Amino acid sequence: MKVLIAGGAGYIGSTVASACSDAGITPVVLDNLVTGRQEFTHGRAFYKGDIADGPLIDRIFAEHPDIDAVVHCAALIVVPESVADPVGYYRANVAKSLEFVGHLLRNGCTRMIFSSSASIYAAGADLTVDENSPLDPQSPYARTKAVCEAMFADIAATQPLRVLSLRYFNPIGADPKMRTGLQLRRPSHALGKMIQAQEEGVPFQVTGTDYPTRDGSGIRDYVHVWDLATAHVAALGAFDTLLPERGAEPAPGTGAGSTVINLGTGRGTTVRELLDAFNEVTGTPVPAVDAGARPGDAAGAYTRSDRAERLLGWRPRYSLAEGIRHSLEWATVREDVLDGSA
Question: How far apart are CA 335 and CA 108, in angstroms?
């Protein structure tokens, strides 16, 4: 099998590419390197460019006519940034994705795995969700993911395209072999901020302290990025069973042409609990100070669904502590893996 990974030089896309390689699937990487890193593409077929570039997509398929499927990870993902620049986010995440799908259909590619997000959910009173929970995205970033899912479902309803949307919860960690990890030295998510606070000897800011959670801080379902990557491998293997070509009967619990699957651990961890786990792993406690919520932030949610296990035979392998350890290990080797310090 050969798979085109759009956004394959980013944190998740590059890890998916490594998991594919380890499983005997050949990745072809497409990335414009706006946030991705070329170092993550070494040893792989790599095309620098944009998903909306029709001639480039045509060239990729001409040079790799045996591509069986596409994993679409290309997106801008920073919530506060999306609040400040909604035009840029809708252009990059929605408009270009629409162009991309047109290019895929023109080249006869009918299988797509879409990197979606659990941030599109309206969490229930207990802050858990499943694939049938109502949607209520709280930021422009989250809305771009919801719009793309709906757009792809509309296209899949009448066109040969079949789309499996994987709704990620909150990825942490790095490739356990330390081939890839977060490319940013100063990531904006909670665990990255904890590592930064530890390095700088300053308190960690708990942003948002009056959410309806057990301790007032936001709650997330932290899933190891390598577990996310192996879920994509499982999804590639099960794709035609879950979403057969038009006219065949789809698997129970899936839709015709498109379906969604949550990828999470089923455990909710508050920001304060994450800090406790971080301090236990490091043995060097980082103090905390309370701060206001960031623009676009929400209370959060975690999955109560077992659909990924039922349909993909997938379940998370790594613990929260292992995700923290791998993130810390990556922070120590990042400069050696990446050229420069951006």
Answer: 40
| 12-39 per-position pLDDT tens digit | 999 999 999 999 999 999 999 999 999 9
Separation of alpha carbons 154 and 177, rounded Å: 39
Convert the pLDDT of each residue in 247-301 to its tens digit. 666 666 566 799 999 999 999 999 999 999 999 999 999 999 999 998 888 889 9
3-state secondary structure the chain: CEEEEECCCCHHHHHHHHHHHHCCCEEEEEECCCCCCHHHHCCCEEEECCCCCHHHHHHHHHHCCCEEEEEECCCCCCHHHHHHCHHHHHHHHHHHHHHHHHHHHHCCCCEEEEEEEHHHECCCCCCEECCCCCECCCCHHHHHHHHHHHHHHHHHHHCCCEEEEEEECEEECCCCCCCCCCCCCCCCCHHHHHHHHHHHCCCEEEECCCCCCCCCCCEECEEEHHHHHHHHHHHHHHHHHHCCCCCCCCCCCCCCCEEEEEECCCCCEEHHHHHHHHHHHHCCCCCEEEECCCCCCCCCCEECCCHHHHHHCCCCCCCHHHHHHHHHHHHHHHHHHCCCCC
Closest by CA position to 1, among listed 239, 218, 251, 335: 239
Q: Summarize pLDDT for 156-173 with one digit per residue, the tens.
A: 999 999 999 999 999 999
CA dihedral (103, 105, 111, 114) in degrees, to 10, reads 40
Q: Which of 121, 141, 302, 318 is catalytic?
A: 141
pTM: 0.94
Active site residue 141: yes
* Nearest alpha carbon to residue 219 among 253, 265, 254, 188: 265
